[in-house]
Amino acid sequence: MKELEQIALLISGDQKAYIWLVDTYGVKVKNMCYHYLQHEDDVQDAMQEVFIAIYTNIHKFDKKSSLSTWIYRITVNKCLEYIRYHTRKKRNGATISISTTNYEWKENQIKSSFTANENIENQEQKVILFKAIHQLPEQQKTAFLLHKIEQQSYVEVAQIMQTTLSSVEALLFRAKQNLKKILADYYKDYNS
Description:
The protein is 74% helix and 0% strand. It has 9 helices and no strands. The chain has helices at 3-11, 15-37, 40-57, 67-91, 107-111, 120-134, 138-149, 154-161, 165-191. Helix 1 (3-11) packs across helix 2 (15-37) and helix 4 crosses helix 8 (154-161). The radius of gyration is 18 Å and the shape is globular.
């Protein structure tokens, strides 16, 4: 069945279409949530919010972009909202019912996503890289994750972030420059 037919079924409230949606986009949504939130419980909460938002707003999908792009946009926005909300709760001293994650990359959480076939050196490099990525400003991090980790084209990144192609190019350029600096500082301190 074609995507447009599935969208029409989703709009009509068809349960099989919702199952198709989760089966088709569940892994992509989970991966993107994990890149932002790093903790399985938080990822599951955010995923639920994403799919609820998709389901309740599918009638607003304008078909100017692909469904995949629209879903990525919702996912990124929900992850950023999730981080802001829980960071604000921590700053205000309120009790948090989520995990103790402080939204900094933690080695044990990163390593838990590795396969058994990866060697230790490769794992250590990933830990260092993801810690550096997490230090980037929000927009740079989003562009970098979408393009380099999620393998989205510049055009798709621009659509997801609702910005121009030149802005994406600039964000990625600055992200790479910042990563070079962060990683150079890390290796300088590491080798000292």
